[in-house]
């Protein structure tokens, strides 16, 4: 079988999947009745609507012509995520400035050109700006380094 | 009644012209214009990113500054559209056509000037409308019960789906997903944790900053990095901009366009789910239809700049009407502004106007002052903006990432928020790949808990009888309007028009 509209097909499958997941997770929460809604009532109904609509979108995508899904940009996706992970971990463990350094250098590597000197200068400027605005300007209480 | 408005406006202006609030307004419009000028970062990400800057301000200052950022981005977006043929914001997409064409024939100055004049006129009308329509609407809204609120939210969400780009069913799915993401956290009624996967950091629910930054900031950068075209050198106009002032003929030509654009913008701006983008598109289409010489459009017709620019600014101003009086945000950016109010400890809704008149009227007055500042600011700073546009993207996106990371982290000082932003960023990137519009999701995300609560209350009052939504007249009216919107979508000719509009905007 050939899928004619890949974009819509996968979108439909994704929504149907999220819908099924919501229904399944909501089985842990009491439904209650319409007049006394339990915590499971609203999410179960939402999940059911999404499962239904998602399935319709996916099935319709089988018969109508439509665009293909363009390939994913894996390198930027991994590097931007890694930069954020490093910052999230770093700001709690090694301080604001080292965390920003990691974030800036790792995300800069996601681009097409990476010149070491250029990136280092940019990183220093970014750190100086961020410390100036956020630490001295609006006084966010982040430790600057691991020794505070 | 009229003296009331004058008194209220006097209170507003006395609040807004205090030096500190003038300063916040100035910073807001300046930063907003700056971000608006840069393509690839929209108003939603801008407001979310700069939210932490307002944490230490008082509520009035914070909301004045954030609103300034919002309407500043619209101004900045048109500057980029005219000079570089790149829309700084999605609402300036149409301005590219005639704005850039005018710049090509050496008329960049008048194009920028008419955009500023049209926007200022529209902003003034918008401000007056908010002042006139706001109080009576809040009066009515105070009488709303749970069923009315629920039906109103249904209408707002369906309107957002009809007016959004992309497939109708997919957009409704995005809305439902947004509602589900919105109820992550502790259920207020039962105290039960829902969809938290045992993470204590999610007990208070997901922060809208996290969702907005992920879907609009992180995902946008990913997509830009893939689009090699964006990093290529931009076709920036190098000629000197001379003769800023439009000629008398320009003014005469664009007068009607500005009026019509303002009216269209005010309509779509007030309608929940509408917004600046749809307003600009409609205004341009109307102008082209009404013109005796439509073949001039696209070749540098000044009306093609005046109409959409007036429309998008009118829409931005009028969006504050429903947002402030009903507490129902009317688009993604407005949802963020309401979130900012909540952080400041103010529950959005019709009571804001009576309990915090300084905030409500101060904001209205500051919007007008901000618009005036933009006219004065925008034209002399054009040279600076051109320089800014020459900064290569490889320096811009790490800076945006740094601002986003600090912004997300500073909301709760929680590293989990950073990790959740990655998750929503990747999800947002997948949405882009599958052509699913993320703006309605954010709107639904903010409305999720409100909607559940009002549904619960409505059904509790009616003892589980769902007809309560159609037996109460105001609620029924909202639902009839919703049904009409949906019916329109089934009418083939309207549907074709919408698809054409969507296709047209996609190719630009």
Note the main attributes of this structure.
heterodimer; A: 148 residues; 67% helix; B: 508 residues; mainly alpha; two-stranded antiparallel ribbon; 75% helix; globular
Structure description:
Chain A has 148 residues and is an all-alpha fold. Chain A has 2 domains: 6-63; 74-137, no CATH class. In chain A, 67% of the residues lie in helices and 0% in strands. Chain A contains 5 helices and no strands. The longest helix of chain A is centred in the middle third of the chain and has 23 residues, at 41-63. In chain A, 38% of the residues are buried. The mean pLDDT of chain A is 88. In chain B, helix 9 packs across helix 19 (415-433). Residues 229-233 of chain B have low confidence and may be disordered. A two-stranded antiparallel ribbon of chain B has the order 1-2. Chain B is mainly alpha-helical and 508 residues long. Chain B has 23 helices and 2 strands. Chain B has one domain (2-507). Chain B has helices at residues 2-16, 19-37, 43-50, 59-84, 93-104, 108-141, 146-163, 168-182, 208-226, 228-231, 248-270, 276-290, 303-326, 332-343, 351-355, 357-378, 382-389, 393-412, 415-433, 439-461, 468-471, 473-490, 492-507, and strands at 185-186, 193-194. The N and C termini of chain B lie far apart (47 Å). Chains A and B meet through helix 1, helix 2, helix 3, helix 4 and helix 5 of A and helix 8, helix 9, helix 18, helix 19 and helix 20 of B.
